[in-house]
Amino acid sequence: MTQRTMKKNLGEYTELARQIAELEARKQAVADRIKAGMEGAEEIKCGGYIARNKTIVSSRFDSKAFKAAHEALYSAFCKPQTSQRFTIATA
């Protein structure tokens, strides 16, 4: 790929990322307005839509606390994992 094409692709990627972030912020603002309009209700129906804002309780494993309490056991069950992270930053 030529430098010119690469620069064009990088520019397009960063512009799309900016637009996505802007749209996500707008989406969150609308969601906040909807939640405020629900006035604490868990579910409302309006014009063919159903909006739900329910509290979800979940249980997560605290690996840091487990490692601190049982380091040998923690190490015995850890396995290496390889991944790649793709990022683009402006210079």
Model description:
The protein has 91 residues and is mainly α. It has one domain (3-77). It is 55% helix and 9% strand. It has 3 helices and 2 strands; from the N terminus they run αββαα. It has helices at residues 3-38, 63-69, 71-77; strands spanning 43-46, 49-52. The chain has a two-stranded antiparallel sheet with strand order 1-2. A hairpin with a 2-residue loop joins β1 and β2. α2 (63-69) crosses α3. The protein is flat and about 50 Å long. The two termini are 20 Å apart. The mean pLDDT is 96.
Strand element count: 2
Tally the structural domains.
1
SSE series: HEEHH
First-residue to last-residue Cα separation: 20 Å
Poorly predicted runs are none
Q: Strand order, biggest sheet?
A: 1-2
Tertiary shape: flat
Percent of residues in helices comes to 40-55%
